[in-house]
Amino acid sequence: MILSAGEALIDMLPRTTTAGEAAFSPYAGGAVMNTAIALARLGSASGFLTGLSSDLMGDVLKATLEASKVDLQFCVRSDRPTTLAFVKLVNGSASYFFYDENTAGRMMTLADMPVLPASVSAYFTGGIWLAVEPCGAALEAMLLREAKARVAMIDPNVRPGFVRDRATYTARIDRMIAASDIVKLSDEDAEWLYGAVDPQALLAKGVKVVLVTEGAKGATAYTARGKVTVSAPKIVVADTVGAGDTFNAGFLAALDRAGLLSKAAVAELSEEALRDALSLGTRAAAVTCSRAGANPPWAHEL
To answer: What does the alpha-carbon distance between residue 212 and residue 183 come to, in Å, rounded to a whole number?
Structure first.
């Protein structure tokens, strides 16, 4: 199993009613939840660790995850509310406004974090809850613990409007990156965190694979042995919600299919293996971009 740990929320996407009025429509989402769903749809055994509310929107999230065959045994249920993210779209690019105080996921603590069985071969995390407490500390501690025993991947997926203490947040991201085998950054994330895209600096911290995505330009994997770049498919973009999350799933799913999800294998990935993983990631992300909201493809759609 590949276990994803992080936020599950409701994306409120802008729509127009039949009467021509501006409105918001609820869609299940959250960066890490999107990755968990995409992994399951691409054929990997996918588990999800999050704080899941027992409210109406929590039931929507649960049903959405179950419909994609995501394993929910590690979820922490509570009666706290579900996080909401109102989305603003400008030329297809999304910006987010979060309502997250005292929510089921936000209030997760280290005491809620389970002991993982050996069947969990990889642990993925990232997203908005790394920027807030107490869940940020819990997710960090979980990664630092689990990275010793299994492949660890992080995608910070920075949302600047969610970060209240930049120094504390970036210090946490740096610690988690240094403990991870695979790090994914969009070009925008890298520039916000470090001022520039510098994969070599991350490799020097001990990271085995640094993935940098550049939207329509494609994605590049950097290792100590060189780099591999794959172009993105040409598509008509509906929106970019969930694109990077789907890319993450595609990359991990490709390694999973090839039997390469071990710490030893990830440390020595061949150019061919990296190209295959980048290809699945970019192709899957392109499908997500071609339709509204975070709606990752099933394997048969590729």
So the answer is: 9
Give which of 230, 277, 222 is closest to 253, Cα–Cα. 277
Distance CA(266)–CA(258), nearest Å, equals 11
Confidence (pTM):
0.94
> How many CB atoms lie under 10 A from the CB of residue 23?
11
Q: Alpha-carbon torsion 192, 236, 128, 275, what sign?
A: negative
Coil, helix or strand for 3?
A: strand
- Give phi and psi for 236, each to the nearest 5: -95, 120
**Residues 162-174 pLDDT 10s:** 899 999 999 999 9
The arithmetic mean of pLDDT across residues 21-27, rounded, is 92
Q: What is the C-alpha to C-alpha distance for residues 280 and 14, in angstroms, rounded to an integer?
A: 29
Query: Starting from the edge strand earliest in sequence, which strands make up the sheet with 219-223, in order?
Result: 46-49, 2-5, 122-126, 151-155, 182-186, 209-213, 219-223, 226-230
- State how far the Cα of 106 lies from the Cα of 3, in Å rounded to an integer: 19
Rounded CA gap, 161 and 212, in Å?
A: 22
- Strand stretches in the chain, DSSP E: 2-5, 9-16, 22-29, 46-49, 51-53, 76-78, 83-90, 93-99, 122-126, 151-155, 182-186, 209-213, 219-223, 226-230
